[in-house]
Amino acid sequence: MHQPAITELAAADPEIAGLVEAEAKRQYEKIRLIASENYVSTAVLEATGTVLTNKYSEGYAGKRYYEGQQLVDPIETLAIERAKSVFGVEHANVQPYSGSPANLAVYLAFLQPGETVMGMALPAGGHLTHGWSVSATGKWFRSVAYGVRKDTGRIDLDEVRELALAERPKLIFCGGTAIPRTIDFPAFAEIAQEVGAVLVADIAHIAGLVAGGAHPSPVGHAAVISTTTHKTLRGPRGAMLMSTEEHAKAIDKAVFPGLQGGPHNHTTAAIAVALGEASKPSFGEYAHGIVANAQALAAALTERGFDLVSGGTDNHLILIDLTNKGIAGKPAAKALDRAGIELNYNTVPFDPRKPFDPSGLRLGTAAITTRGLGTEQMPKVAEWIDQTVQAANNDDEATIERIAGEVKELLAGYPMPGWN
Prior knowledge:
With 420 residues, the chain is an alpha/beta fold. The protein has 16 helices and 15 strands. Keywords: Amino-acid biosynthesis, Cytoplasm, One-carbon metabolism, Pyridoxal phosphate, Transferase.
């Protein structure tokens, strides 16, 4: 059953309670490889479900617009201080509702509509809010996109520099949603300094790796750091903006009153809990375990003939081009879900297929590492992925069903926060 127990919910609304219980069971029985997902601790779950959700707190600690903040202010202050300590930053704002609003606040802090922003192209692994055309950031600002080399699948920083010198952006984003390699923050910082741009490191995917010492930190290189608080950081669905003291006021003003009203205090408390967990030595072991699992899984997939973008991974994320397997990403992802392996279909660089029916798969190892799976299980996971892709090509549902049973049997030996 769900932990913490949802007995009151079951009594008041059994339909919703049943769906919540079923979702918890689904998460327990599947190998969850979506790179942006994880399992939060029971403590984070409990914090998210507290009476803090009852309270409005527009403004910042000590400068609120509503009364009754005597206990909310210390909670938000704790979250801020813990963020500053974990990441080694001068300033932190823990109020953004999610990653996209956090990035929008950065635009509001530094740009006027129509001014130039530079970010990684979405098909190359960037994020919608880094200036892509369908996003408000691509509609309201002049967007310049960089990508990756076709022969290596990696960013060519010489080309990035040439583009920046030609276009003179005021804001440069580094980071994204499907980047399997280490982000070279010092090199991006040099480019930003040369063209007089503000460098923003979007570390939403790798924040937990940075906190745990398993990926280089952007601190000291990027003036502004944007991140979600879930994914590898293993917190609730929220976001943070961190910066040098020089930009603190601009960032805070952009978040509130620029874009948001009252923060979600229950989320703020859960962020504080997650950051407290990230400050412990065991979190560093966890972060390095994520990378070890990803690299072991990447090696096992390569041995089975899968074409990995950039040839492998340095972090939690693996991007597979399925072209040589004779199947597109979407049918492969759906077959894998039926087999008990949850990931997402994804565009790969220079993909000839449409975004809603792309050539690739994106997967990550944060959640399975939380469950306790280690490098010794990664060859078996790769085997199941390989067998499922073959079965999908051959309409072999019996094999897919068999694998789902084997996955469930394996995971029965690995506990999950949120399910007993």
